[in-house]
Amino acid sequence: xxxxxxxxxxxxxxxxxxxxxxxxxxxxxxxxxxxxxxxxxxxxxxxxxxxxxxxxxxxxxxxxxxxxxxxxxxxxxxxxxxxxxxxxxxxxxxxxxxxxxxxxxxxxxxxxxxxxxxxxxxxxxxxxxxxxxxxxxxxxxxxxxxxxxxxxxxxxxxxxxxxxxxxxxxxxxxxxxxxxxxxxxxxxxxxxxxxxxxxxxxxxxxxxxxxxxxxxxxxxxxxxxxxxxxxxxxxxxxxxx
Amino acid sequence: xxxxxxxxxxxxxxxxxxxxxxxxxxxxxxxxxxxxxxxxxxxxxxxxxxxxxxxxxxxxxxxxxxxxxxxxxxxxxxxxxxxxxxxxxxxxxxxxxxxxxxxxxxxxxxxxxxxxxxxxxxxxxxxxxxxxxxxxxxxxxxxxxxxxxxxxxxxxxxxxxxxxxxxxxxxxxxxxxxxxxxxxxxxxxxxxxxxxxxxxxxxxxxxxxxxxxxxxxxxxxxxxxxxxxxxxxxxxxxxxx
Lengths: 241, 241
Hints:
The structure is a homodimer.
Chain A: H1 3-12, E1 13-27, E2 30-37, E3 48-52, H2 57-69, E4 75-83, H3 86-93, E5 110-117, E6 130-135, H4 146-159, H5 176-187, H6 193-201, E7 206-212, E8 222-226, H7 228-237
Parallel strand pairs in A: 1-5
Antiparallel strand pairs in A: 1-2, 1-3, 2-6, 4-5, 7-8
């Protein structure tokens, strides 16, 4: 890419502003976050992207997640905007690699934080560089202020839990135990199995399938699927747990 | 101000980014929002301010509220970031008055929304131009996307109500009825008087004063004041209503 082309692309972006995304996935009963390591960078970070001058900011987050993971129907939720005064950013840009034209790794003064709820198995990162799903309790050192961003995203997720379609973190077919474990993992507490299943079944958004989950010791091996129209409707009033 | 000085001040700001503030006040049992009309502008807007490259964004909101109203210990809460694609901003800037060097009226692509909870009687706007407190149910046409910003602020206020120090909307001395009316006004519903007062008194943050409110028909004319240390502590767990 010539200098001129690079400069003209830069002009399409809002300078000093980025979107950061905490992509939550649920695997083996652990809550995980997708981390990226850009070529030439030593540290890990959340997916970060620039914002075009001509797009709503939520579109910037969705576009960035699409180019990063290939997913194109992701639930994203803005949760907090973070600022980092120029002085701290200047220190960071002293490292030559940060001055690269790759907007994903440019530090920014203002970053709008989104979280995404994705089906772990459907994410196939397409970006150059390394990526890993990392358990939320075992994060490595992160670039920028991304530790704070992850912490804040988790707090926001817990706070809004009853209004969020967290079933998007589950595969298409799941057991009631899977759903209970999802709640328990996010909230870091346990629920009584019978009461919790009874509560779930009091809503109309779960459909029991003829299939059962095999290969695991499970008192309720029946598989369920979700009717997302009814689910959305129940989420309007909030789902108790 | 010379062109050069003006340009050098502009460089201290983050271009295309602003903070907007929905300043809530409570007066005569109505929830009100402070609106400004800048000299030469035909429409009303929320207080808007620029963000310095060297300050955390919350400081930008507090600084802007200080220069606008003279208050310097205001409770502010970030609630949502709004974006307005460049095309719509370009239409707006076609009006000559919007190109003025006053950063308060410059349109911006990204605006971080804060709300503030203030004691109505303590606000003495210091800015050049008109200002008015406007009932939230009777807003005039607003500049920019400020109708959406006010709507979103009210939704955020309702959603987080139990964790917010809304007593900051009351004067230093108030009756239980004042506090009940405050909740009722924000939530647009009514509460049973006796149950509500009993609930309030179950917390330890209210201190009964020897004085009574005079001149109004009031079954509970006793004046109360708040112990903000105990109040903050109760807010950690959320205050029921």
